[in-house]
Amino acid sequence: xxxxxxxxxxxxxxxxxxxxxxxxxxxxxxxxxxxxxxxxxxxxxxxxx
Length: 49
Hints:
Layout: H1 5-19, H2 24-34
């Protein structure tokens, strides 16, 4: 499935608004605080890909 970059940006803006955050970093921090994510769920910075 292909969607435009504009569509992705629109979805991100809607998600940020619902979470009351203004960036991907804030969204991740919010998810960690809420227990939706753990640090083990995040990609390892040293992994390739």
